[in-house]
């Protein structure tokens, strides 16, 4: 596979010790991030994998909404709830059974075998008529640990920081790729969310366009700047801190709060206490603090009920460009569980009209999460 072209004018640099790099049988990239004193020993991937076909991913423009839709038929073939002894994310020391051909690892990142987006491109343009365009971009999988039965919340602080470093490294690298407009690190945890691999992992997308949520938030931020001369997210954070009723935890570098207009039954936002665009902008001390508060929140989530809370984690990151200059890095943690026995389903109002109806008071959720600290 040819190397990805770098975006002109972007500085891409090593943020942590350079990962150990390898290749999978079909040419996909494999990167190992390791704790001090640990040296990964990847073996040759000997699986007979077919060559990937980038044409399996398309972008189609919905003129009724002005939004792009990704069509990725290849994803129909992705691995679905395999038994634990056939997990493709566990170490595979023989090179015949796993996406991670190595006896053991700490954190690993690799290109998704069944990607939503794949290949390289340039600036995306809306076509005339019903014309699909190549679904270029980048989709990666990040495994937080080799422990199949663990979770992010189970990680030691140093290991959680290693995951953050891997997110940061991939953010810097993907933001420098030609045609990538937005980098999104995320995790889905729990079968209730739709997870098909129980091994603790997340994903990293490099989109060739600004996602609809990001575009809306940036437009709101521009309007706020024009009206008040200040950054929307900074003002929002300041008001949440002053009010205090929805603040869950606060450190010298980060604040976690349930938003005033929370859409999900359990929803917590994590903001750095100073304006930054993305993980690349954070100092070493802030990265330590971020790993700690992130772990703290996930552990509170798991203490809410008798079983671990299914959740989605979304890292909102922005590039330092004119179009994204008002973007303020933050994390959203969300769960569809609205009680110990009931789930929140996105039915007609949410799915068809994007009009969320919340079943719980944000202040009550914040109080409950504070109690669990």
Characterise the protein shown here.
- This protein is an alpha+beta fold.
- The chain is built from six helices and 14 strands.
- The strands form two sheets. It has an eleven-stranded antiparallel sheet with strand order 1-2-5-7-9-8-13-14-12-11-10, sandwiched between helices. It has a three-stranded antiparallel sheet with strand order 4-3-6, with no helix packed on it.
- The longest helix is centred in the middle third of the chain and has 19 residues.
- The N terminus is likely disordered.
- Pfam families: GalP_UDP_tr_C, GalP_UDP_transf.
- Belongs to the galactose-1-phosphate uridylyltransferase type 1 family.
- It is an enzyme of class 2 (transferase).
């Amino acid at each position: 596979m040819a190397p990805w072209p770098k975006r002109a004018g972007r500085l891409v640099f090593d943020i942590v010790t350079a990962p150990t790099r390898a290749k999978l049988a079909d040419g996909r990239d494999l990167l190992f991030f390791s704790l001090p004193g640990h040296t990964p020993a990847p073996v040759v991937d000997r699986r007979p994998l077919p060559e990937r076909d980038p044409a399996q991913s398309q972008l189609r423009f919905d003129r009724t909404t002005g939004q792009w839709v990704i069509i990725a038929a290849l994803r129909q073939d992705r691995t679905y709830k395999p038994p634990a002894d056939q997990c493709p994310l566990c170490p595979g020391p023989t090179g015949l059974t796993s996406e991670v051909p190595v006896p053991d690892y700490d954190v690993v990142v690799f290109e998704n075998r069944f990607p939503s987006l794949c290949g390289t491109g340039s600036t995306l343009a809306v076509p005339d008529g019903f014309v699909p365009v190549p679904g270029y971009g980048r989709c990666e999988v990040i495994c937080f640990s080799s422990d199949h039965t663990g979770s992010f919340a189970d990680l030691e602080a140093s290991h959680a920081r290693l995951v953050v470093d891997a997110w940061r490294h991939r953010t810097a690298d993907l933001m420098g790729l030609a045609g990538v407009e937005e980098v999104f690190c995320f995790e889905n945890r729990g079968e209730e969310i739709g997870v098909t691999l129980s091994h603790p992992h997340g994903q990293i997308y490099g989109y060739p366009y600004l996602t609809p949520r990001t575009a809306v938030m940036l437009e709101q931020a521009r309007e706020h700047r024009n009206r008040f001369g200040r950054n929307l997210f900074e003002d929002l954070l300041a008001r949440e801190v002053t009010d205090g009723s929805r603040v869950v935890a606060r450190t010298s570098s980060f604040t976690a709060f349930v938003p005033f207009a929370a859409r999900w039954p359990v929803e917590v936002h994590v903001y750095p206490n100073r304006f930054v665009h993305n993980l690349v902008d954070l100092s070493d001390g802030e990265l330590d603090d971020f790993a700690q508060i992130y772990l703290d929140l996930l552990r509170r989530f798991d203490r809410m009920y008798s079983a671990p809370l299914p959740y989605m984690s979304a890292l909102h990151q922005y590039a330092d460009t004119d179009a994204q200059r008002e973007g303020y890095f933050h994390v959203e943690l969300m769960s569809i569980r609205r009680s110990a026995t009931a789930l929140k389903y996105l039915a007609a109002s949410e799915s068809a009209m994007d009009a969320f109806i919340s079943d719980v008071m944000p202040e009550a959720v914040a109080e409950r999460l504070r109690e669990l600290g």
